[in-house]
Each structure stands twice: as C-alpha cells, then as structure tokens.
C-alpha cells in the first residue's frame, strides 16, 4: 500500500482560520485608514475656515472689541460653524483672537488662536 498524500481536514481548517484572521485584520486596518483620511480632510477644511477668518481680521485692520461673535464657513462642500472670541492681553495694543470651529452638528473640530494688533 502506498502512503496517501495530501492534507488532513484538521490541517485545512487550521489554514482557513489563519486566512480568516488575516483577512479580518486587513479589513479592520483598511477601515481605520479610511476613517483617518476622512478626519484629516475635516480638520484641514476647518483649519482653512479658521485661518480665513483670522486673516480677514488682520487685513481689515479694524479695532477689535472684546467679546464673542459667530461666523460660518463652507469648505470642501461641508458647512462649518465658527465662534470668534476676542480677549484682552497684558499689552493694550494687542488682542488675543480664538477661532473655534465646529461641524454642522455642533461637534468641535478645531480651535486656532492668534494675537492681532489693536488698531
């Protein structure tokens, strides 16, 4: 009688389990990469909104009154809601300006701060 060649059922099942675990890990990694790419796009667009708002304040060279105001912005087809806070600094010739950006549902995305001369 010649020896049988091939794999036993146990060996085939172990190989299938290893392949299934590997594929599951690959799918999970691909999902994480997709989520990270989406988050990066959202934060980048929110940063553009905040930078645009702060640059507009610098370019208008108007006297900044202490307080809060709201603004809105659209970048990459998404709508963002912003809150601008102007606060005093130890030097009365300068103001601190914070631009807080949230998505359309109000979830905070980004906060950007700068110091602007008070003209």
Automatic annotation (TrEMBL):
Type II secretion is composed of four main components: the outer membrane complex, the inner membrane complex, the cytoplasmic secretion ATPase and the periplasm-spanning pseudopilus. Cleaved by prepilin peptidase. This is Type II secretion system protein I. The gene is gspI. The lineage of its organism: Bacteria, Pseudomonadati, Pseudomonadota, Betaproteobacteria, Burkholderiales. Transmembrane segments: none annotated. It is a single-pass membrane protein. NCBIfam families: gspI, IV_pilin_GFxxxE. Keywords: Cell inner membrane, Cell membrane, Membrane, Methylation, Transmembrane, Transmembrane helix. It comes from Pelomonas baiyunensis. Gene3D superfamilies: GSPII I/J protein-like. The keyword Membrane applies. InterPro entries: N_methyl_site, Pilin-like, T2SS_GspI_C, T2SS_protein-GspI. Residues 40-116 form the Type II secretion system protein GspI C-terminal domain. Belongs to the GSP I family. The keyword Cytoplasm does not apply. Component of the type II secretion system required for the energy-dependent secretion of extracellular factors such as proteases and toxins from the periplasm. It is found in: Cell inner membrane.
